[in-house]
Structures are given as C-alpha cells and as structure tokens.
Amino acid sequence: MRKGEMTRAAILDVAITLASRDGLEGLTIGLLAEKMNMSKSGVFAHFGSREDLQIEVVKLYHRQFEQEVFYPSIKEARGLPRLECMFARWIRQVTIEIASGCIYISGAVEYDDRPGEIREQLVTMVRTWQLALHRCALQAVEAGHLRADTDADQLVYEMYGLILGLHHDARFLKKAGSVERAQKGFDRLIDSYRNAQPSATVGKAVSQNQKTNQKIAAKSAARPIQ
Questions:
Q1: Helix 40-47 to helix 50-65 angle, to the nearest 10 degrees?
Q2: Global pTM?
Q3: Cα separation, 164 vs 170, whole angstroms
Q4: Nearest to 167 by CA among 91, 218, 66
Q5: pLDDT > 70: what percent of the chain?
Q6: Is 194 helix (H, G, I), strand (E, B) or coil?
Q7: How is 123-139 classified by DSSP, letter by letter?
Q8: How many other C-beta atoms lie within 10 A of the C-beta of residue 95?
Q9: Which of 56, 85, 179, 223 could cross-link 76 (Cys pair, CB 3.0–4.6 Å)?
Q10: What is the DSSP string of 42-96?
Q11: What is the pLDDT of residues 74-121, one digit of tens each?
C-alpha cells in the first residue's frame, strides 16, 4: 500500500478498537487524532467527516466478521454442518469481543431510533448475516438434516437470541459458564428440528462436523472472561 493508504488503514485499526470500547458515538476525531499523534486536520484529510469515519469503521467490522465467521464456515458441507460451524465460530467471536464489545450489538442500542446512514449500514449488515443463517437453515432442510416443517425464521431468531444472551451474561454480568449454556441452548434448538431418520451419509457428515465444532466451542469456553 502507498503511504496514504497505510495511514488510513492504521487510523481505522485504532478507530475500530475505540468504537468497540466506547461505542460509535464515543468515537471522535479529536480522540482519534490524539491516539494517532496526528492533527485533527490530518485525520479529516482521510475521511472528510466524523460520520464518514464511523461508516468506514462499521464496514471494517463487517469485513472482519465475515473473515472470522462466515467465510471459514462456508467451507463446510451445505446444510447442518455449515450452520453448526457458523454458530460455533459466532460464539468464538463473541468470546474474543467480551473485553471490547460487539459493534453490531452496541450499534443496535445506539442507533435503534436514530435515523441516518450509520443506522442503515448497521441494519443492512445485520440483515445480511441473518439472511445467510436463514439460507443455511433452508439448505439443511433440503439436505434432509432438519425436518421439512422446520421454521427457518424461528430458528434464526432463537439463534440470535442465544448470542445476545451470551453477550449480556458474559460481558455485563460476567457469569461463568455462559459459553457452555449458549452452546447447550443451540444443541437443544437443533435437536428440536432434527430429522429423526437421516441417511447414513448425512448422519456421518453431521457427526464429524459436530466433533469439529465441539472443539471450537471448548476453546471458546476456555477463553477467560475479563
């Protein structure tokens, strides 16, 4: 990258850390300039306005989420193996963010009733992730992993609820065992929709994936909650 691009990337790297800790509204040009040992005009030269900076932070967070959660998951077989991997990696991401915060969750609180471009960006990105989960749930039905009468909307709703509960209990209440409870909740949810008579091939693929995701979940549970 050229020097200007490297500076911009460095500014965003610091900005996303500050936004995760203090919220998007807590992100100011002055604070960022201080952290970067730059002038305010120097920061403005790369973004133009505080809102432009906040939007770029949201976009960067979304790209990082995709790299850590979505893209590794779609390498798994379509259907339940992929859905289980998505949830396992999602939990892992939450445990990483316990000490800082999730911009999707904090952003929803900050901008739930505040119209504007930042809110629209957040809404679009959260919906994109929910649609990916929904599509994966439907593929699990098509593959015979889940019953034909599976309510994909309800399934995704409850998955999201488990993550919100995990973030609340682990970050706010600092409850031990929150990761395990979230995983147990997901396992119980999937069992309520599971096809009672999957084919031998399907059963083998799902079983192998469960072992992999159990390892991911175990590592997440072992991560200390600060």
A1: 60
A2: 0.83
A3: 10
A4: 91
A5: 87
A6: strand
A7: HHHHHHHHHHHHHHHHH
A8: 23
A9: 85
A10: HHHHHHSSHHHHHHHHHHHHHHHHIIIIIHHHTTSPTTHHHHHHHHHHHHHHHHH
A11: 999 999 999 999 999 999 999 988 878 889 999 999 999 999 999 999
| Element at 155 (helix H, strand E) | helix 152-167
Compute the residue count for the chain.
Answer: 226
Structure tokens at 76: 């798994």
Give per-residue pLDDT as tens, 37-79: 999 998 888 988 899 999 999 999 999 999 999 999 999 999 9
d(CA 32, CA 26): 10
The residue assigned the tokens 């995709």 is 66
Q: Is the pLDDT of residue 222 over 80?
A: no
The three-point CA angle 211-225-58 to 5° equals 85
